[in-house]
Amino acid sequence: MKIHPLSDVQSKNIGESTSIWQYCVIFSKARIGCNCNICAHVLIENDVVIGNNVTVKSGVQIWDGVTLEDNVFIGPNVTFTNDLAPRSKQYPEQFSKTLIKKGASIGANSTIIAGHVIGEYALIGAGSVVTKNVPANTVWYGNPICQHGYITNDGTLLDMEKKDKYGNKYEL
Fold first, then answer.
1. Which among 17, 22, 55, 65 is most buried, taking Cβ atoms within 10 Å?
2. Is 77 in contact with 96 (CB distance < 8 Å)?
3. Contact 117, 133 (CB under 8 A)
4. Where in the chain are the domains?
5. Rounded CA separation 168/84 (Å)
6. What pLDDT does 2 receive?
7. Amino acid 114: pLDDT
8. pLDDT < 50: residue spans in the chain
9. Rounded CA gap, 98 and 141, in Å?
């Protein structure tokens, strides 16, 4: 495990071979798996679970109630929310839960509205606003998000008919 000396890491629940870069703040009850890369300027609250082989790029805040499964990619400045009706100094009994499933990727500057599930290997394009659940192996972008295709587990982009750029049809 590598923790930059300019970070404030209170959690002892961090897996082997994980790197945490400068200016990160990680609360004491956060759980982070093995072989993760937590880039600079990331904040991770207490009720957060991060799986193995996860990349969180710079400028991301991961609030209570968010779970990132294994092999998830979170692009720079992705915004998570956890309270659908926030008020200063008024907190819900429980924050909304957000689940990003195995292998999903979320592009830079996307906003994830609390309480949704992004399916396995789904791809959210940069600058998107996620306002609903996203099925596995689908490609979504826009504000609000709209489906624009499919994606294989290994990252081959497919159109709405599940064909790649060469016209080959896939079964997912």
1. 65
2. no
3. yes
4. 1-83+93-172
5. 42
6. 97
7. 97
8. none
9. 18
